[in-house]
Design a protein that fits this description.
Palmitoyltransferase; elongated; mainly alpha; PFA4/ZDH16/20/ERF2-like
Length: 328
Amino acid sequence: MALSRALRCCQRVFSWIPVIIISSVVLWSYYAYVFELCFVTLSNHLERVAYLLIFHVCFIMFCWTYWKAIFTPPSTPSKKFHLSYSDKERYEMEERPDAQKQILTEIAKKLPIFTRAQSGAVRFCDRCQVIKPDRCHHCSVCETCVLKMDHHCPWVNNCVGFSNYKFFLLFLSYSMIYCVFIASTVFQYFLKFWVGDLPNGPAKFHVLFLLFVALMFFVSLMFLFGYHCWLVAKNRSTLEAFSAPVFQNGPDRNGFNVGLSRNLRQVFGEDKKLWFIPVFTSQGDGHYFPLRTLCESENPLLANEGKWMEDGGSDEESAVVSWLTLAS
């Protein structure tokens, strides 16, 4: 037991290494750009002020979005999706798999769940003892079920899901802007150092490596950002792109795709002025998502709307029901 605790502790410590690496590179880039380039290399005061102003805007937005992506806790299923004491006891007492499956099916009828496991059974997490909402998956690193889980990212040491997906996308975009700005402003001085128009010194080393590092990170980020833009446009998570969600009528990769405009609003919200600011504006609460094609007669949520509302549904939940009705 003590050994297991020690291993988990070591794992937590080592999981911060990628974050420390990124933070160290960014802090070095700040020193190299502000002091070695702007204060040591630049002689034009107007150019220096302009560079410093724009650089600090990019730097602040990068740090803000990175901080939010790291320290925003993953959203987990609400109590409605946890088994009650009596249901849990009934489920654990039953040894037959088919009977356990039937128990979960009966409980799920009271919940707005549309997806199923590959076997067609209700998706249930034995470790968290929770019926999984649509698009929810268990993260073995975070050791919890995460709403609309996309993936676990070592570079932010956090699960990317419903609560911080917008922050993760903004982190990627502001990282690219940060790299592009550094590369574009450093390039002319890189050439001057390279051909010998500027004297050798510590600044030369920093300026040369600034360009290489900025371009290297930009290329890697460009592919990752492009992939996630495609995912947002299709309203898929990384997990759903590799394994299509299974509905009552079978697997469907486009099951949650409700059109480009509505897909964007699900992640970034209705107010476009807040799209590029790292504040939470995503629609809903991560438990319920509009479906692309859903007939009312096949809608288990609408068929059990009365039961669900009788079990303590709030005004917000009623609004979600209406939202799903319109989506269908």
